[in-house]
Every structure is written in structure tokens, then in C-alpha cells.
Design goal:
The structure is a single chain. The chain has a ten-stranded mixed sheet with strand order 8-7-6-5-9-1-10-11-2-12, with helices on both faces. The protein is globular and about 60 Å long. It is an alpha/beta fold. The termini are far apart. 24% of the residues lie in helices and 18% in strands. It has 13 helices and 16 strands.
């Protein structure tokens, strides 16, 4: 018979081993944010937006499992200022950078980048880093070289890899990319992608001269994968501005093969700028599919790491399809019948895809017709992170994205201002779209007015029938325009009364 003390000891030991482990309460972790940015991708160049000739299975899945916006805009229709406005939350009348102000030249020895962000700039990188995020920008920067105040490491990003100078990004096989201010040499010779070929004498070997060994997009994805793996235990923000499908038409042969023979195509010899290609239609389609493949790699990694439920992945593009470099926007119906292309403030130049996926937070398979714009991203990222944003021109889209439209802030209009291609302004107000063009020649250019509800292709100008609306648009321009800091970007007669 066991002694009472022995029985008591045994019961105590059983209690110790049977009791559940006491662990500290798990702190809620801020969600990871991944923003993937295509380059010159048109509104309808992915499957979920109606593309019929180009395969984008991963983006289609992203759309099926998240939300797709159908009236979403870039802030302006070209590269560098679109990136500035995205990262600083400012529209074209307030942004520090408003056009592609180029410095230097195309050869490596003349690499000079674009006008840099000023030291005083406040970016989404600054905002999220101060909220406890590790931040990375991997891809095309275009907002200043490493020796300037526009250096991404000085603009809120803990890590940068990619092209600093967007002129260098015309070539997908560069001699180097940049990693935190240092050149990362690649196994490629210098390739002059703006050298044309003579149609009468060009050989298959001539086209091969525009290929290298290390494809820049692959290098970016490797670095993105490494960043996610290294920081999966803490909240991270990954800004991933890929260069695809911006010309030049360059893509690995393994990707090109799936499209060869599908299209009736002729060689492109470089007569409209950028690298020649023997199969331009196949190359363009393959580039977009290659971009889609990279997105699949990122999505799979997030799932394998167990981060799906705490990671929001968003996708958009900086402007509409280009008009040069061997790209055939009409063949692919790239902008779905919208008017204009890159560099236009008509719908084809600025209406872009926007997809967001966040399992458990964003309802799957949702489509939104809310009118929204990329300078809303700063406010949206802040809402995702649970913080107050710095001063900006946008509104948070998080309520609309997460199925809470009753909490969604509204606004009366979206403002666009673009100083290149003759100078233009545009205002989206409800169903109405007002546009002025060629304002450098005529600061008092007349308004064009379109009813996008009945005329999404902007084919019928109804300004004369609605002349009573035009003074309100003039007042909006006066309200929203601030003088640019360089004369080249100043084209608006908007003196305050």
C-alpha cells in the first residue's frame, strides 16, 4: 500500500506533465505587404481583364482569389512620375517629379538616372519602416542614382536591387544591376538595344546579338525570394516594380517557344526604337507570360512559408501599353478599345489593372467598379498597417477591398496633370471625364468632355452640350495645381483669384 506522501507526489508529477504548456499571449503581427508593379502593361493584357491571346494563369488566380478593380488609374501616364506619385501619395499637380527628366545617357559610362527625389520626400518606405516594417524595393527605380538624394536606401528602403536608371532598363541583359548602392556585375556584354538592323541584310545571327546570359527579371525574382525568406518572421513591405513588358523585346528562348507559330508575324528591325526581334508578337506575349510566372513564384513562396493569411499581394502597372519598340497594341487589344496609349491622359494611357489578394480579409472573386487611383496607395498601405499616413492626396481603399463599402471614404473627383506630350490635364468626376490637351501651345485650350458610362472609348465630345459644367473643372485645376519646381513642367495658367 502506497504511503499518502507518495500518492501526493505522483499526482503532482502527473499534473505537471499533463498541464498544457503556458506560453505568452501571441502578439498580433502587422500584415506583410507586397506591391507588384508592371511596366507599360495595358488594361486588358491579362486574362482576368479579357486578354485572349496571352496566358496569365497566376494573375488570373490572383484575381479569382481576391478583388479586381475595373476603374483604377495610374497617377500619370509615364514611368518616373508614376513611380514618384505612387510612392509619395501625390497627384500630378502636387508631385515633386511630374515627367521623365533624364540625366546622363545610355552607355554604362554615362549612366545618370532621372531627376532624384529630394531629401525632404516622405515615401511609403519611410512610412512603413517607421511602423516596424523591413522594406525592400526590387526592380526599376527611376527616382535618382545612388549618389543623389533619390537613392532608394535614403528614401525609406532598407534594401534595393535592380535598375536605378530607367534608360538602362531598356535592356533586359544589362552588364550590371545595383544592390544597395553597389554595382552587381552580370554575365552580359554591353548591348546597344537602340541599334537598328537593315531589313535587306539582317540575319538570324544579327538578332541573336541582343541576347545575353543573365536575364534581369530572373535576378530580381531571386532577390525578392531571398528577401522574403530572410524576413518572414517579421512584417515586411516588398515593392516589386518589374520592368516587363516595357520594350525592348527581349525574353529567354524557353519562354518564347510557347508562342512561336501562333501568330502571323514579321520581323521587327528596330525602326520604332528599341531592340529588333525576329518574332515581335511572340516575344511580347512571352514577356507578359514571363512576368506572370514570376508572380506565381512569389505566390507559391508565400504559401509554402505559411504567410498567406497575413500577406496582402497587390498588382498594377505604371501606365498603358506603349506605341513603339515593335509592340502592337491593336493586335492584342491591349487597352480593350479604350482611347489612347502610354503618354496619354485618355483612358488607354491611364486606366490600369488593379488586383489585390488577402485570404480571409478580401472576399474571393470580387469585382469593384469604384473609381480609384495609384496615389491612393499611401493611405491604403497605412490602413493595412494600422497607422496614420503622412499628408497625401489619396484615400484608403481598404474598406472597399475588404467588403465594407459602407465604411469607404468617397471623393468628388480624381485629378491628373501631365507636362509632357504637349501638356495635358484630366479630371474624372463620377461618370464624367474632362480632358485638355496641347496646353503648352494654348494654356486656354478648350475642355473635351466624355460620358464614360455610355462612351468608355471617349469617342463623342459632349462639352458643348454641358457647357455649364466647364467652369467647375477650371476651378478644380486652379485648386489642385501647385507650381512645379522646374520650368519645363509648368504649363498651366491657374492663378488663384
Amino acid at each position: 500500500m502506497m504511503k499518502p506522501t507518495s500518492i501526493l507526489l505522483m499526482l503532482c508529477l502527473q499534473g505537471i506533465f499533463a498541464a498544457p504548456a503556458q506560453t505568452p499571449a501571441k502578439k498580433s503581427r502587422k500584415p506583410n505587404i507586397i506591391f507588384i508593379y508592371a511596366d507599360d502593361l495595358g488594361y486588358a493584357e491579362t486574362g482576368s481583364y479579357g486578354q485572349q491571346k496571352i496566358k496569365t494563369p497566376h494573375l488570373d488566380r490572383l484575381s479569382r482569389e481576391g478583388i479586381r478593380f475595373t476603374q483604377f488609374y495610374t497617377s500619370t501616364p509615364v514611368c518616373a512620375p508614376a513611380r514618384c506619385m505612387l510612392l509619395t501619395g501625390r497627384h500630378g499637380g502636387h508631385s515633386y517629379i511630374r515627367g521623365n527628366y533624364e540625366m546622363g545617357g545610355f552607355p554604362d559610362s554615362l549612366e545618370g538616372g532621372q531627376m532624384p527625389l529630394p531629401e525632404s520626400a516622405v515615401t511609403v518606405g519611410h512610412m512603413l519602416r517607421s511602423a516596424g516594417y523591413t522594406t525592400a524595393a526590387i526592380g526599376k527605380w527611376g527616382l535618382g542614382m545612388q549618389t543623389t538624394t533619390g537613392d532608394p536606401n535614403r528614401q525609406g528602403f532598407d534594401y534595393f536591387y535592380g535598375y536605378l536608371d530607367q534608360k538602362q532598363a531598356h535592356n533586359y541583359y544589362p552588364t550590371h544591376l545595383w544592390e544597395n548602392g553597389r554595382a552587381d556585375s552580370l554575365r552580359n556584354p554591353f548591348i546597344d538595344v537602340h541599334r537598328q538592323l537593315a531589313p535587306e541584310t539582317a540575319t538570324s545571327q544579327d538578332f541573336e546579338a541582343y541576347k545575353g546570359t543573365d536575364y534581369a527579371v530572373d535576378e530580381m525574382t531571386k532577390k525578392a525570394v531571398g528577401f522574403i525568406k530572410a524576413h518572414q518572421q517579421q512584417p515586411f513591405f516588398l515593392y516589386l516594380p518589374y520592368t516587363i513588358p516595357h520594350t525592348s523585346l527581349q525574353v529567354p528562348d524557353t519562354a518564347l517557344r510557347q508562342y512561336l507559330g501562333r501568330f502571323n508575324e514579321k520581323p521587327y528591325y528596330g525602326q520604332q526604337g528599341y531592340a529588333p526581334h525576329a518574332y515581335p508578337l511572340s516575344a511580347y506575349a512571352a514577356m507578359i507570360t514571363y512576368l506572370d510566372t514570376q508572380i506565381g513564384i512569389i505566390m507559391d513562396l508565400i504559401a509554402r512559408a505559411g504567410l498567406d493569411d497575413n500577406t496582402i499581394i497587390m498588382f498594377s502597372s505604371d501606365n498603358g501599353t506603349t506605341f513603339n519598340g515593335g509592340v502592337n497594341a491593336s493586335f492584342f487589344n491591349s487597352v480593350d478599345g479604350l482611347k489612347g496609349l502610354k503618354m496619354d491622359l485618355y483612358e488607354g494611357g491611364i486606366r490600369e489593372p488593379f488586383i489585390a489578394r488577402w485570404p480571409g480579409k478580401i472576399p474571393a472573386g470580387k469585382t469593384s467598379g469604384m473609381v480609384a487611383v495609384q496615389y491612393d496607395m499611401m493611405a491604403t498601405f497605412a490602413a493595412i498597417a494600422g497607422i496614420r499616413p503622412p499628408a497625401n492626396d489619396g484615400i484608403s481603399l481598404l474598406p472597399e477591398m475588404t467588403g465594407r463599402p459602407q465604411q469607404q471614404a468617397a471623393r468628388k473627383y480624381i485629378y491628373f496633370e501631365y507636362p509632357e506630350k504637349g501638356g495635358a490635364v484630366a479630371i474624372r468626376m463620377g461618370k464624367w471625364k474632362a480632358v485638355k490637351t496641347d496646353m503648352k501651345k494654348n494654356k486656354n485650350a478648350r475642355w473635351q468632355l466624355y460620358n464614360l458610362e455610355t462612351d468608355r472609348g471617349e469617342t463623342v465630345d459632349v462639352a458643348q452640350q454641358h457647357a455649364d459644367m466647364l467652369p467647375e473643372f477650371d476651378a478644380i485645376v486652379k485648386k489642385e495645381h501647385r507650381n512645379a519646381h522646374i520650368r519645363e513642367w509648368e504649363f498651366i495658367n491657374a492663378k488663384k483669384d
